[in-house]
């Protein structure tokens, strides 16, 4: 493999890392609160707000039903507003984050739903405020599930980032398509797939280790 | 200490209004252990949840320590709940927290400092016998140990009232006994008012001072445990008690008794003991004094709060006049004598 190709691999790898890392970070920061709100405003929960819950749910579903490739081009004006450009790695981060936020929200909501209602009731019987129920009971008890959810999100983002080539975002997936497919270099394609397999494996294993570390059930 | 006034709770069901509780009036004195028994679906859980307003009654008032909880705003209600501890059938411990941190939770909620928490929690863990387990997680504990953590947690905020929601229903009989002994001990030592709901009459018998029987959302009978056990008025109460105390004659015995030759010239009686009468050797004295032969067929003597009670099914043979005198003699000694019928 030529050194030129090697540096191409390295650059693409870094681009993937940037896209997944930043989009994942934003999705975590926004998605966790979103999941919390979805969960606690649901009927029968500590901060029941049916209207807010249904509205948020609709928005989340709408974003999640839009195919990523369409979402990416549809929000170009927003991307340009935020990053100043509509092409490149930075520009790819915006749609990736926007697609991942509702996904994380639903995963976190699911993890919180798994927490035994009896624990919430016990905390309420002790005189806990809704915020205390969230901080002291729901989040710590759902933590293994939350970490599992974030791991799933990262793995999904790695897959989605392959489509970022459509807006010139670069990354490993884009390398595989441009060189492996369009320039008939199957060994590049194979190498890309191999690297992605290893990266996904590492992310999943790391997530599993952390999740079991905090799981005392 | 606790007063329930006209508590009614209904839910909007598909077939109209479903009433879980109807017009419950109850007064629970300071320092007593009050039991509420009923079959599943009787409304027990709803009733105990009304005491700390985990369920808000549709009508009526809940007074704890003289304060009406139903009129409090959210913040005042939370403050009032610090004075009401609660333990649960499935313990409801946080799996993410150690034994110590579980007990510390109610204290963290009121913003107590770490050192003050340490000072409060350590003796509580010793009280429930878990001083050596403070660093363990609930998953590493047995059911009985989990309930002990639950009890320590409920006591952490130094409540005046302890609510026990089927607290022993998930435990085996031996563990149940040790938990009941602990609750009794806590009640004596701390002067805590304890409210227990259960479907097990054994729990009422071993633990409670007074009992109320709940059926279809209404209290059908209440009184001190001894008199409810010895003189149950309602059919349901009698059924519940029969599970604990064998008043029921075994079927094989009934069959033998129905054969005419056995009962011939003999009197079949059921003798009910309560209070002090079980301490005296009444049967043997009766036998000597009136020269009658007593054959004890079936019976059970038990005790509630140290007061013995029970019944014996006896077959007595002797002269008719002597037998009559013997029954009268027993009646003078607080033994109720009933003619037993065999179908």
UniProtKB/TrEMBL annotation, chain A:
GO terms for biological process: D-methionine transmembrane transport. Its main location: membrane. InterPro entries: AA_ABC_Transporter_Permease, MetI-like, MetI-like_sf. Belongs to the binding-protein-dependent transport system permease family. CysTW subfamily. Keywords: Cell membrane, Membrane, Transmembrane, Transmembrane helix, Transport. It comes from the Bacteria. It is a multi-pass membrane protein. It comes from Rhodocyclus tenuis (Rhodospirillum tenue). It is found in: Cell membrane. The keyword Membrane applies. PROSITE patterns: ABC_TM1. GO terms for cellular component: plasma membrane. The chain crosses the membrane at residues 20-43, 55-76, 82-104, 145-168, 188-211. PANTHER family: ABC TRANSPORTER PERMEASE, D-METHIONINE TRANSPORT SYSTEM PERMEASE PROTEIN METI-RELATED. The gene is metI. This is Methionine ABC transporter permease MetI. Residues 13-204 form the ABC transmembrane type-1 domain.
UniProtKB/TrEMBL annotation, chain B:
GO terms for cellular component: plasma membrane. Residues 2-241 form the ABC transporter domain. It comes from the Bacteria. Gene3D superfamilies: 3.30.70.260, P-loop containing nucleotide triphosphate hydrolases (3.40.50.300). Keywords: Amino-acid transport, ATP-binding, Cell membrane, Membrane, Nucleotide-binding, Translocase, Transport. One of its GO terms (molecular function) is ATP binding. SUPFAM superfamilies: ACT-like (SSF55021), P-loop containing nucleoside triphosphate hydrolases (SSF52540). GO terms for biological process: amino acid transport. SMART domains: AAA, NIL. Pfam families: ABC_tran, NIL. Part of the ABC transporter FtsEX involved in cellular division. Important for assembly or stability of the septal ring. Belongs to the ABC transporter superfamily. This is Cell division ATP-binding protein FtsE.
């Amino acid at each position: 493999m030529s050194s030129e190709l090697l540096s191409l691999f390295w650059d693409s790898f870094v681009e993937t890392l940037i896209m997944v890392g930043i989009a994942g970070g934003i999705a975590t920061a926004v998605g966790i609160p979103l999941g919390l709100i979805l969960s606690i405003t649901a009927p029968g929960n500590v901060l029941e707000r049916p209207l807010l819950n249904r509205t948020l749910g609709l928005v989340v579903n709408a974003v999640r039903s839009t195919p990523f490739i369409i979402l990416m081009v549809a929000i170009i004006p927003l991307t340009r507003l935020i990053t100043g450009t509509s092409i490149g790695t930075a520009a790819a981060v915006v749609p990736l984050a926007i697609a991942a936020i509702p996904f994380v929200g639903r995963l976190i909501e699911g993890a919180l739903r798994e927490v035994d209602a009896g624990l919430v009731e016990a905390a309420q019987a002790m005189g806990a405020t809704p915020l205390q129920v969230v901080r002291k009971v729901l989040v710590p008890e759902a933590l293994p599930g939350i970490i599992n959810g974030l791991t799933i999100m990262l793995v999904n983002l790695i897959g989605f980032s392959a489509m970022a080539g459509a807006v010139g975002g670069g990354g490993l997936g884009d390398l595989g398509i441009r060189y492996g497919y369009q320039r008939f270099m199957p060994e590049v394609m194979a190498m890309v797939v191999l690297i992605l397999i290893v990266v996904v494996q590492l992310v999943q294993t790391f997530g599993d280790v952390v999740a079991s570390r905090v799981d005392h059930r | 200490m606790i007063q329930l006034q006209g508590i009614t709770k209904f839910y909007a069901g598909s077939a109209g209004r479903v009433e879980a509780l109807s017009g419950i009036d109850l007064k629970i004195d300071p320092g007593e252990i009050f039991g509420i028994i009923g079959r599943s679906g009787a409304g027990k859980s709803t009733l105990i949840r009304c005491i700390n307003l985990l369920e808000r009654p549709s009508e009526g008032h809940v007074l704890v320590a003289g304060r009406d909880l139903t009129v409090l705003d959210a913040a005042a209600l939370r403050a009032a709940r610090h004075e009401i501890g609660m333990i649960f059938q499935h313990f409801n411990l946080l799996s993410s927290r150690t034994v110590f941190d579980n007990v510390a939770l109610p204290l963290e909620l009121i913003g107590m400092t770490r050192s003050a928490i340490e000072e409060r929690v350590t003796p509580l863990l010793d009280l429930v016998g878990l001083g050596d387990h403070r660093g363990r997680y609930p998953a590493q504990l047995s059911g009985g140990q989990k309930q002990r953590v639950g009890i320590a947690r409920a006591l952490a905020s130094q409540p005046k009232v302890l609510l026990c929601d089927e607290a022993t229903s998930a435990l085996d009989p031996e563990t149940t006994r040790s938990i009941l002994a602990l609750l009794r001990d806590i009640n004596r030592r701390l002067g805590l008012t304890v409210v227990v709901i259960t479907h097990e009459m054994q729990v009422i018998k071993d633990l409670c001072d007074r009992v109320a029987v709940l059926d279809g959302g209404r209290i059908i009978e209440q009184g001190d445990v001894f008199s409810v056990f010895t003189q149950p008025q309602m059919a349901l109460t009698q059924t519940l008690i029969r599970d604990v105390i064998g008043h029921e004659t075994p079927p094989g015995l009934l069959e033998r008794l129905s054969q005419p030759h056995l009962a011939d010239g003999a009197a079949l009686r059921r003798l009910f003991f309560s209070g002090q009468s079980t301490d005296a050797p009444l049967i043997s004295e009766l036998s000597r004094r009136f020269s009658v032969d007593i054959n004890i067929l079936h019976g059970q003597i038990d005790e509630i709060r140290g007061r013995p009670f029970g019944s014996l099914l006896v077959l007595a043979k002797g002269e008719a006049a002597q037998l009559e005198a013997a029954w009268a003699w027993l009646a003078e000694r607080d033994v109720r004598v009933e003619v037993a019928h065999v179908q």
